[in-house]
Amino acid sequence: MAAVRSMSRLLSQRSINQVLRRGYADEMNFTFAAGNKVFYNASTVKQVDVPSFSGAFGILPKHVPTLAVLKPGVVTVFENDGAVKKIFVSSGTVTINDDSSVQIIAEEAAALEELDSAAAKDTLNKAMSQLSSATSDKEKAEATIAVEVAEAIVKAIE
């Protein structure tokens, strides 16, 4: 409580009440969608781990509100029944709200078991070839992004 009192000069009463209310809960409301598929729609889950440009992090119920940009990598969802789902995302955003609901919106996403290792390696080789032959800044930027995503897919599958 002493820490909360010392913060009281910096926080509004509403913010203090939110800090004091935070506690442990067993599950959180979770929505995860991409342009090609809805993976979770207002489902309840125990935990979600996400790859972020500020560093990978885990989301538990009552997580502090956050907005982050996803980098290419694997989102791991720990469901209430103990199942663990791994979904590759190319990019996107994660939003954690005041009410502890979590939304992930991905540009593209696919369950790991749907990805083909040989095709991923072929895509990586093609992207690296495009990067080495790129001449304009735009071509280099596009090829760099393609290499980054392909490398992340290959790493996720292995």
CATH homology-level superfamily of the largest domain: F0F1 ATP synthase delta/epsilon subunit, N-terminal
Which structural class matches the secondary elements?
alpha+beta
Unreliable segments (pLDDT under 50, ≥5 consecutive)? 1-5, 15-24
Total domain modules: 2
**Helical residue percent band:** 25-40%
The global form is: elongated
CATH architecture name of the largest domain: Sandwich
Mean pLDDT: 83
- As a whole number of angstroms, the C-alpha radius of gyration is 19 Å
Describe this structure in a few short sentences.
The chain is an alpha+beta fold. 34% of the residues lie in helices and 34% in strands.
Helices, strands, pairings?
Elements: H1 2-7, H2 13-21, E1 28-34, E2 38-50, E3 57-59, E4 66-70, E5 73-79, E6 84-89, E7 92-96, E8 102-106, E9 109-111, H3 117-133, H4 137-157
Parallel strand pairs: 1-8
Antiparallel strand pairs: 1-2, 2-3, 2-5, 4-7, 5-6, 6-9, 7-8
Family: Belongs to the ATPase epsilon chain family.
GO molecular function: proton-transporting ATP synthase activity, rotational mechanism
Protein name: ATP synthase F(1) complex subunit delta, mitochondrial
